[in-house]
Design a protein that fits this description.
Blueprint: E1 2-3, H1 4-7, E2 8-12, E3 28-31, H2 33-41, E4 53-54, H3 56-61, E5 72-75, H4 79-82, E6 87-88, E7 94-95, E8 99-104, H5 111-119, H6 137-141, E9 144-145, H7 150-189, E10 200-203, E11 208-213, E12 225-228, E13 245-247, H8 251-257, E14 258-259, E15 264-267, E16 269-270, E17 278-280, E18 287-289, E19 293-298, H9 304-312, H10 314-323, E20 331-332, H11 335-339, E21 342-345, H12 348-387
Parallel strand pairs: 3-7, 12-18
Antiparallel strand pairs: 1-9, 2-8, 3-4, 5-6, 5-8, 10-21, 11-19, 12-13, 14-18, 15-17, 15-19, 16-20
Length: 388
């Protein structure tokens, strides 16, 4: 076992002023934390998807740190840290100052072996004890990595790579089914901006009966209720219960923050890239939501699945992004701002047809998800065997 600090080079992220953002081509990709998540969720081990590029002159102006190929990158602060997502750089690039990178010594550590080792490290165990989780280089440098001979490292990496490839295929199948639902939405309702089908117009305020914030109470071990936080809502509009906490709530406060089947959940505070994540709570077991989530209950004008689909559509994502353009750091969209968003209000009968179509897709996704879960269990067992 050796310390990472003795066999790795650490790279800091770079501040990225707004005036340099938004360039679609250039010499160096500049990855934000949200880009890391999007690449991982798209099944990419290597960073490929990027929305910002810069050239040498900009690197100089912002005093940027270039990360070389085969550097493992990850979020170092905030809710994104808890997600424990890792990716590898494939060329010289930069990451924002909410992320960091670690490059192993190629002469003694196989880069793919190192990547899988880092995937097995739960960074929450190395966080500073503050309200916002964060990790420092000094803590990570003390982590020890087992170093078998290079040939054995490559064998281990190949085994894990095979399982990971199967997992990536399942994720791709799920992604295509999500895209099918989005395509069906546009086919049935048309573009929300041009409104080619001439539907009635309104705002979210017109179609909701109740809007409530979650609780600010902390999670506790052995709590009575399952506790949904912003990490439990995915960017694509699904509910992810893989990292679930528990909470105790007095009966007098329960109705304010409990969610039931059919409620729409909206993530009101997050990074600019992730704020506004939305899903429908479709489980029979009631749960409690944290304060960074808004519980929305619709009236008879729309179905929950329709409202969620609007906010997860290209129009919805762009609208939310435009609302946060001038924000620096964490973005927040409050209940009033959410209710001001313009939407189309098509006939409820057509919404029901869309709901039935989405439900059929959901059943297909369930079968794929069960296969995915088995593969994830196998991979976890192998990681434990190889890395402890």
């Amino acid at each position: 076992m050796v310390r990472l600090g003795d066999v790795c080079t650490f790279y800091s992220g770079t501040g990225f002023p707004n005036i340099y953002q938004g360039k679609a081509d250039g010499k160096y990709p500049f990855y934000k934390v949200g880009d890391i998540s999007r690449n991982v969720l798209s099944g990419n081990r290597e960073l490929k998807i990027c929305e910002n590029y810069i050239d040498d002159d900009t690197v100089t102006k912002i005093k940027g740190t270039l990360l070389p190929p085969q550097t493992v990158v990850f979020a170092k602060i905030g809710e994104a840290l808890r997600l424990n997502r890792r990716a590898i750089t494939s060329h010289d690039c930069l990451v924002d100052n909410n992320a960091m990178g670690i490059k192993s010594d190629d002469s003694i550590i196989d880069s793919l072996y190192f990547y899988y080792f880092m995937c097995n490290v739960d960074l929450q165990n190395y966080c500073e004890s503050t309200t916002v989780p964060s990790v420092r280089k000094t803590r990570i440098a003390e982590i020890e990595i087992p170093l078998p001979p290079l040939a054995e490292q490559r064998r281990i990496a190949a085994v894990l790579d095979k399982v990971s490839g199967l997992i990536a295929k399942r994720w791709e199948q799920l992604r295509k089914l999500d895209e099918l639902v989005k395509a069906r939405f546009v086919e049935m309702f048309g573009d929300p901006v041009s409104n080619p089908k001439g539907w009635n117009k309104g705002t979210i305020r017109d179609v909701v009966s109740e809007v409530k914030y979650g609780t600010s109470r902390p999670a506790v071990d052995g709590g009575t209720y399952k506790y949904l936080r912003m990490g439990n809502i995915t960017f694509d509009g699904n509910l992810d219960l893989s990292d679930l906490k528990y909470i105790n709530i007095p009966d007098s406060e329960l109705e304010k923050c409990i969610v039931r089947k059919g409620d729409v959940l909206f993530n009101r505070t997050n990074s600019k890239e992730l704020v506004g994540k939305t899903c429908v709570f479709d489980l029979d077991e009631p749960m409690v939501i944290a304060g960074y989530i808004i519980r929305v209950r619709v009236n008879k004008k729309v179905l929950p699945i329709y409202l969620s689909a609007v906010l997860n559509s290209r129009y919805g994502k762009q609208t939310l992004a435009d609302m946060c353009k001038a924000i620096v750091g964490q973005a927040n969209i409050n209940a009033q701002e959410l209710q001001n968003i313009a939407i189309l209000i098509p006939p409820i009968e057509l919404q029901e047809k869309f709901s039935n179509s989405a439900e059929t897709v959901k059943k297909s996704k369930l079968t794929i998800q069960q296969s995915l879960d088995k593969l994830e269990v196998l991979k976890k067992a192998l990681m434990q065997q190889y890395f402890g």
